[in-house]
Amino acid sequence: MRLAAAVSLRIEHVMDGPGLSDWQLVHNEIIPTDPLPLDVISERAQRRRLTVAYDGDVPVGCATVRPPEDDTPAATLIVRVLPAHRRQGFGDQFYRAELPHALALSDSVDTIVLESNQDGLRFALSHGFVEIERYLLPGDTIPFITLRSTDR
């Protein structure tokens, strides 16, 4: 881990403006099977906490905190870090910064990782998450994996 990550990571809650474009950039690169247009992201920002992590002025990741829904009592915390910025401590710092927001909504926390994102899967497993479900979006061939934290 490079020491600069702990000092320079800046996390911004985004609801509109250029931050939404940065969130979109990260999401669509990491989840190419389900790219999101800005209008959908803007609508989601009204119901969910969307954040972008920056190293200086460079976006390195995005996160979503989703409140519990009717079919699950868990809050969902999804942290994504661009491949070029992984293994530098950004993911861990970003996850720890967003976790209190998820825990304010529920004692139980889930995350979701695209199966092809092996770095994301390793990260989730190393942070005490276990797989509880796999699902495919219509027309997709790569499943999403839902994992639940066992650290609570």
Automatic annotation (TrEMBL):
It comes from the Bacteria. Keywords: Acyltransferase, Transferase. The keyword Transmembrane helix does not apply. Signal peptide: none annotated. It holds the Pfam family Acetyltransf_1. CDD domains: NAT_SF (cd04301). Transmembrane segments: none annotated. InterPro entries: Acyl_CoA_acyltransferase, Bact_Acetyltransf, GNAT_dom. The keyword Acyltransferase applies. Residues 9-148 form the N-acetyltransferase domain. This is N-acetyltransferase domain-containing protein. The lineage of its organism: Bacteria, Bacillati, Actinomycetota, Actinomycetes, Propionibacteriales.
